Amino acid sequence: MQISDNTVVQFNYTLKDQEGNVLESNSGHDPMAYLHGHSNMLSGVEKALTGKTKGESFSVTLAAEEAYGERKEDAIQRIPAKHLQGAKVWKPGMVAVVNTEQGQRQVTVVKPGKFMITVDLNHPLAGRTLTFDLEVVDVREATSEEVAHGHAHGVGGHHHH
Questions:
Q1: 76-120 shares the fold of 7-68+126-149
Q2: In this structure, are residues 67 and 94 in contact, taking their beta carbons and an 8 Å threshold?
Q3: Which residue blocks in 23-141 are alpha helix, DSSP H?
């Protein structure tokens, strides 16, 4: 079966920067799963996966605008320390999670203060050309429930509590 809209794809990935350093990988863990065609995945990765089948391995290199976007120099904001999740003590360069109206996003601490923390709202990987090594583990038709919810369920997917 080929990857197309409303298929659930299980895949393994290794993410590398331009110098070939591994930034993220799920090797040794369950495969990641996502519902194709529902904007759950970087569009450049989704485009590269379209039409692939179980067992295929390949690499795709995405320019910043296809990956996490260009860096915006004005995306610096001071926010109350209590809104940052992920650590008790913040140091410059640490990545925090902040809940926003658009859901959770990662921010980078620029300057910690006692009550207010200056953060960079750019995604930590913004402005970088990235290479994804991808391996398609499985492809299946999505269930009507998955399509209705807009995401994959089960191993590597979205869990409802």
A1: no
A2: no
A3: 43-49
